[in-house]
């Protein structure tokens, strides 16, 4: 099983969409940010400005190519420039796309989700959780192998897969547009990955 490289990175889930607000499974469906999501991305840029002073600077941004993530990444990139930061390179990686939920896309989140994470059930036409985990780990490793400290802008289910790869409880919801500073045990006097939330 591919492991995450022991390197620090920043992570941001995209801002809110209408489907997030309605509690629907999005997956690969290309739902845009709503007005709240755009405002959340603006606010995240300010939180990153504070976070990079406390923790470490962002050297480049790697985003999922889905519109809700790429728009969030672009808003953060522009917001950091407005706060006085140098423009950051922004690229996309298809490996950061959200999981395909198959026949569950556009449907309310259901009881199947825990079983999907456990590997006991996969909706028809959906991507198994183990495959998502391998894909997510490979994408983050590509971002950290580039040198420096990346900001990964992606999705909620994908981050559950990364939590699993970090040996953390997987089914923990990450709120929209909440910046995380993530450090491996090798950089800490700790036996576990550490996640620090940037908040007002």
TrEMBL record:
Domain of life from the UniProt record: Bacteria
GO cellular component: cytoplasm
SUPFAM superfamilies xrefs: Phosphoglycerate mutase-like
Parts of the chain that traverse the membrane: none
Pfam families listed in its UniProt record: His_Phos_1
Span of the signal peptide: none
One GO MF term: phosphatase activity
SMART domains xref list: PGAM (SM00855)
Active site: 14 (tele-phosphohistidine intermediate), 98 (proton donor/acceptor)
Annotated substrate binding sites: 13-20, 68
Protein name per Swiss-Prot or TrEMBL: Phosphoglycerate mutase
């Amino acid at each position: 099983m591919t492991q995450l490289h022991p390197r620090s990175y920043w992570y941001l889930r995209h801002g809110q969409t209408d489907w997030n607000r309605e509690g629907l499974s999005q997956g690969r469906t290309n739902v845009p940010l709503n007005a709240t999501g755009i405002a959340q991305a603006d606010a995240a840029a300010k939180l990153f400005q504070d976070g990079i002073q406390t923790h470490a600077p962002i050297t480049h941004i790697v985003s999922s190519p889905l519109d809700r993530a790429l728009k969030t990444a672009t808003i953060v990139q522009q917001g950091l420039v407005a706060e006085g930061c140098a423009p950051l390179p922004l690229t996309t990686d298809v490996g950061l796309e959200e999981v395909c939920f198959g026949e569950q896309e556009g449907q309310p989140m259901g009881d199947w989700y825990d079983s999907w994470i456990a590997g006991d059930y996969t909706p028809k036409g959906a991507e198994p959780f183990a495959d998502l985990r391998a894909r997510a780990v490979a994408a983050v490793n590509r971002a950290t192998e580039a040198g420096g400290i990346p900001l990964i802008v992606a999705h909620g289910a994908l981050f559950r897969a990364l939590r699993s790869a970090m040996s953390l409880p997987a089914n923990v919801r990450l709120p929209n547009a909440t910046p995380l500073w993530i450090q491996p045990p090798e950089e800490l006097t700790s036996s576990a990955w550490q996640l620090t939330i940037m908040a007002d």
